[in-house]
């Protein structure tokens, strides 16, 4: 089994402060209207048995990433050394096929004329993930969001758990 970096999210610890969204957006200077990380409030049940769960969602850097397979320009790749899914904007043709295939809505597109895909890259270019957390996880006051290097089988389980959480 290979070891890959993964976001680990504990829904029971999230207080929906949106600190992860804010840290990502401000630290990476993500443009208005584009969200590399989103916090969802997921309501279920009927009165008087209503429940709410939280989900902090970005690119899951999937073990078997559908976006990588779907990209006709081969602009999206998965790094063997750490499991991160990255995009080469110089190759992206802006077709949005990746967005249609991603179960997490991670690929983002601006409204500009050079509409290239962008998404969370776990800040690998600016943070040494072996020593530090990316800003989204570092800013989380309850530690509901963190990053760990885990076995790919465990990462697949985390992907399934997030998919189930988002499906309600």
What's this entry about, in short?
The chain is an alpha+beta fold and 168 residues long.
Q: Quick one: how many beta strands? A: 6
Helix content: 10-25%
Low-confidence stretches: none
Give the ordered list of helices and strands: EHEEHEEHHEH
Overall mean confidence score, pLDDT: 93
Radius of gyration using CA atoms only: 16 Å
- Termini separation comes to 30 Å
Structural class given helices, strands, pairing? alpha+beta
The CATH class is identified as Alpha Beta
Q: What is the number of helical segments per DSSP (H or I, 4+ residues)?
A: 5
> Could you describe the largest sheet, including whether it forms a barrel?
2 strands, antiparallel
Q: Number of folding domains?
A: 1
**Strand order across the largest sheet:** 1-6
Strand content: 15-25%
CATH topology: Alpha-Beta Plaits
Shape by Cα distribution: globular
| CATH hierarchy: architecture | 2-Layer Sandwich
In words, what does this structure look like?
The structure is a single chain. The protein has helices spanning 19-27, 66-70, 97-101, 135-138, 152-167, and strands at residues 3-9, 38-46, 49-57, 76-78, 85-87, 145-151. By secondary structure, the chain is α+β, with helices and mostly antiparallel strands. The chain has one domain: Alpha-Beta Plaits. The longest helix has 16 residues, at 152-167. The model has no long low-confidence stretch (mean pLDDT 93).
Could you give the topology of this structure?
Blueprint: E1 3-9, H1 19-27, E2 38-46, E3 49-57, H2 66-70, E4 76-78, E5 85-87, H3 97-101, H4 135-138, E6 145-151, H5 152-167
Antiparallel strand pairs: 1-6, 2-3, 4-5
């Amino acid at each position: 089994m290979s070891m890959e970096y993964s976001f680990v999210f504990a829904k029971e610890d999230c207080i929906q402060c949106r600190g992860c969204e804010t840290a990502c957006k401000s630290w990476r200077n993500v443009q208005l209207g584009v969200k590399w990380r989103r916090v969802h409030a997921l309501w279920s049940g009927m009165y008087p048995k209503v429940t709410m769960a939280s989900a902090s969602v970005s690119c899951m850097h999937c073990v078997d990433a559908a976006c990588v397979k779907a990209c006709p320009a081969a602009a999206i790749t998965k790094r063997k050394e750490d499991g991160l899914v990255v995009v080469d904007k110089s190759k992206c043709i802006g077709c949005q096929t990746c967005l249609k295939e991603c179960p997490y809505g991670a690929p983002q597109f601006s409204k500009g004329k050079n509409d290239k895909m962008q998404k969370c890259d776990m800040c690998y270019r600016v943070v040494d993930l072996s020593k530090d957390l990316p800003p989204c996880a570092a800013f989380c006051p309850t530690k509901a969001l963190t990053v760990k290097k885990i076995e790919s089988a465990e990462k697949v389980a985390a992907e399934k758990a997030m998919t189930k959480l988002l499906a309600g």
